[in-house]
Amino acid sequence: MRKKLLAMAVGVVLMAGALAGCGSSAKQETNEIKIGGNFELTGSVANYGKQAVNGIQLAFKQANANGGVLGKQLTLVLADNKSEPAEATNAITKLITQDKVVAVLGPAASSNVLATLQVAQDNKIPVITPTGTNEKITFDNGQTRPYAFRSCFIDPLQGTIMANFASNSLKAKTAVIYVDNSSDYSKGLAQSFEAVFVKNGGQVLSKEAFLQKDQDFKATLTKIKAINPDVVFLPAYYEEVGKIVKQAREMGITAPFLGTDGWDDPKVVEIAGAPALNNTFFSNHYSSQDKDPNVVKFIEAYKKEYNQEPSALAALGYDAGLVLIDAIKRANSTDPAKIREALEQTKNLQVSTGTITIDAKHNPIKSAVVIELKNGQQVFKEKITP
Fold it and tell me: How far apart are CA 198 and CA 189, in angstroms?
């Protein structure tokens, strides 16, 4: 009897071990590559996050339909940073430590990206922001951040483009800079615009400031109206841009307003009204009116998937997805360190907005465009290639 019981006990132990072994093997042979998506799905710039996510999901869907990457399916694990830097830090911590992602895409807003970088560095997980344009995201204190990358151009390029556009195309001699003091994105753009505009012989008559979520801008706009500049440079996000331009036009300010890619959202027209946005211009990453076959192909695929026209944010999300897919393929590995090395070596990669080569500061070398708003519609104005 004792021998029989002992034999049964040994059998149970062996079976448990076998089951445990099966479970371990199944875990190791998982058929997915988990990529984190740290985005603004709610909050003040939720439209940016959602559009970028749409682009990424389209890129992943296409890759998965073509057999996946390294024989595995890409899975985007989303975390909502609620458009807040502190929440962005929490989101990337969860994605890395709990969800065990091998890379993170996002956030969209520069302030939120900056809040995540130390966590990425500490855990040696590469981060690619589709739309964070602040220079310090990838290069700070004279050093390139080893785990930070982006698929968009940087603020100094946007500031330079719009300062040159003001001086050369609009023949502006004077400007007022109206900056969002709660945004690293806005402040960085203001600095680069001012430096180039002054170098061109222009004069900045005044620098004014507001805070995100402000509603009434009339006091400052009254001051700007009295100064009467040739142009107003407003590097900010669509919510405040719409309100500021609307109130400015109601007060009789007719000067051109100049902006950057933060303007690129249909809601800016909804908030300001189409007529108010006439005589406004902003820099952007691509134009839907570009006849480049790659742009046309992306737009057709996006419209088929989502039944709407893609914004630049969606295109940049798509591009970020393509950059990461390409890096994983070339690394031939899901090891984050090897992915990081492959990202650094990205060269002449064809994406929706052109071709991307990652430079020594982990920024893409790529073209930019200036868009004019006419009766609520985006009209291609100029294309600038570095």
Answer: 14
Asked if 105 contacts 152 with a C-beta cutoff of 8 angstroms, the reply is no
pLDDT at 287: 87
Please name the residue that has the structure tokens 């003091």: 181
pTM across the whole model: 0.77
Residue located via tokens 């994105």: 185
Q: What is the CATH number of domain 32-153+291-367?
A: 3.40.50.2300
Per-residue burial over 287-320, b = 16 or more CB atoms within 10 Å of its CB, e = otherwise: bbebeeeebeebbebbeeeeeeebbbbbbbbbbb
* Local confidence band at 288 (pLDDT 50, 70, 90 cut-offs): confident
How open is the CA angle 15-18-24, to the nearest 5 degrees?
Answer: 145
- Asked if 175 contacts 205 with a C-beta cutoff of 8 angstroms, the reply is yes
CATH of the domain spanning 156-284? 3.40.50.2300
Q: What is the residue extent of each domain of the chain?
A: 32-153+291-367, 156-284
